[in-house]
Amino acid sequence: MDELNPSVIIAAFIAGFFSFVGIIISKENKTSEFRQDWINSLRSEVANLISCARAAVDGYQFKVEDVPGHWERMKPDFQKMNEAGARVRMLLNPSESLSKEVLSTLVQMEKLFTNDQGPDREKLYSLDRKLVEQVNAVLKEEWERVKAGEPAYKRTKYLAGVISVIAFSMTLVWFFMYLDAS
């Protein structure tokens, strides 16, 4: 029976390992795509929320009963504002500290609309700016997470480097052993 060549086994192991690395990298790329979609969704929903809140506060300059059909014109802004607020809540993780800050600001914004006189425009605009700053902090944290990579990706990247160095070293050893044998 033929002798089993260790270099064939090692080559098969290395090929299998790098196939595994390829799978991990593909998963990491897909995860990054999902995170980018999440980032874009959060930006869009916060922009919708601010836009609708500002339109709604502008509508309060008239009393509903003084202008026929005024509520019917304002109602879509309130509906869109509520929808955007709900979507922002669904996109955030309430257990993360930066997300908690955003959620707290959303509650403050909603409270502005609970009295009959309507929201104070300056308070709303101040909360808008605060919301944008807080969301930017959440987005920055998420971007840092994407750049760093998932834990499995980081471990695999490190392991791939180590195995590459070992494989290269073994190749050099075998090469010089071959030269000495010749």
Q: Would you give an account of this structure?
A:
It is rod-shaped and about 105 Å long. It has one domain (14-149): Up-down Bundle (Four Helix Bundle (Hemerythrin (Met), subunit A)). Helix 1 runs antiparallel to helix 2, helix 1 (6-59) runs antiparallel to helix 4 and helix 3 (97-112) runs antiparallel to helix 4 (121-148). It starts with 5 loop residues before the first helix and ends with a helix. With 182 residues, the chain is mostly helical. The chain contains 5 helices and no strands.
User: What CATH architecture would you give?
Assistant: Up-down Bundle
* Mass-distribution shape: rod-shaped
Poorly predicted segments: none
Indicate the proportion of strand residues: under 5%
Helix fraction?
Answer: over 70%
CATH topology: Four Helix Bundle (Hemerythrin (Met), subunit A)
Instruction: Give me the secondary-structure category.
Output: mainly alpha
CATH class: Mainly Alpha
How many strand segments? 0
Averaging pLDDT over every residue, what do you get?
82
Sheet having the most strands: none
Order of helices and strands: HHHHH
Give Rg in angstroms: 29 Å
From the N-terminal CA to the C-terminal CA, the straight-line distance is 26 Å
Number of domain modules: 1
Determine the number of helices (DSSP H or I, runs of at least 4 residues): 5
Protein name: CHASE3 domain-containing protein
Organism: Thalassospira profundimaris
Keywords: Membrane, Transmembrane, Transmembrane helix
Transmembrane segments: 6-25, 158-179
